[in-house]
Amino acid sequence: MPRLRPYVDSDWEAVLDISLLAFTPACESLGRLSGTESPARVDPDWRTSVGTYLRSLTRPRERGRLFVAEAQGSVVGFVHYEVDPNTHCGSIGVSAVRPARQGQGIGTLMYAHVLDAMRAQGVKYATADTEGNGSHASARRVYEKLGFVAVPMVHYFKSLATSGPAAAGRPARRGSPSGSGARKRRRVPRASRR
Ligand SMILES: CC(C)(COP(=O)(O)OP(=O)(O)OC[C@H]1O[C@@H](n2cnc3c(N)ncnc32)[C@H](O)[C@@H]1OP(=O)(O)O)[C@@H](O)C(=O)NCCC(=O)NCCS
């Protein structure tokens, strides 16, 4: 079984490689969901964005909360977490396991490790955000296995690349000439007014 240890500089290439491999399905599914042909249409440079974000987590202030899972001398996964000192709430951040090693319990081990790290710092609550699509099914499964309860939310997405309905307001009713103002007011019998 892999062991969890703090990130060190020599892990960089492996962490970046794992991210790009593990997040490609999610970025592709976002492209499909949003009606675009490829993730490049959503964020033409998503690979660079991922790299830049990960780099920010290796800075001295952050790297204490970045862990890697190592097996037989190779990095097979990583996880970052954050703690809000005001609310004493922790959150599991970006994480991924090398696709060839997924489904072997490494993700569960990584998240359990950061939950322990949070507890050791006096954190009272933990949150984790992920998407509701098929590419994040394993993440949701692991969170739920560890006792997280899903709080349903809806994240809307709209492409502004093509012109679409711009007017906000009540949609036109079927059979109505304009959709607004054409509804007849129901007459209230005089006796029941008051
Ligand atoms: C999420 C992730 C880190 C989990 O790591 P992992 O090593 O695969 O996790 P585990 O092996 O501990 O557990 C995976 C669980 O998901 C289940 N699973 C896998 N694919 C699934 C699917 N399509 N639907 C439902 N459950 C699924 C596995 O059966 C396993 O559950 P089990 O232990 O009850 O059998 C990893 O899959 C990953 O890198 N995913 C892509 C990136 C990502 O989503 N990151 C998290 C959000 S930032």
What distinguishing features does this structure have?
single chain, 194 residues, alpha+beta, 5 helices, globular, binds coenzyme A
How would you describe the overall organization of this protein?
Helices cover 32% and strands 18% of the residues. By secondary structure, it is α+β, with helices and mostly antiparallel strands. A hairpin with a 4-residue loop joins β3 (74-84) and β4 (89-97). Coenzyme A is lined by residues 22-23, 94-97, 102-108, 130, 136-139, 141-142, 145.
The chain-level mean pLDDT equals: 83
Helix content: 25-40%
Give the overall silhouette: globular
- Low-pLDDT runs of 5+ residues are 37-41, 176-194
Number of helices: 5
The tally of beta strands, per DSSP, is: 5
Question: Structural class of the helices, strands and pairings?
Answer: alpha+beta
Multimeric organization: single chain
Give the amount of beta strand, in percent. Answer: 15-25%
Distance between the termini: 76 Å
* Gyration radius, in Å: 24 Å
Ions, cofactors and other bound molecules: coenzyme A
Main β sheet profile: 5 strands, mixed
Write out the strand line-up for the largest beta sheet, numbering strands in chain order: 1-2-3-4-5
Write the H/E string, N to C.
EHHHEEEHEH
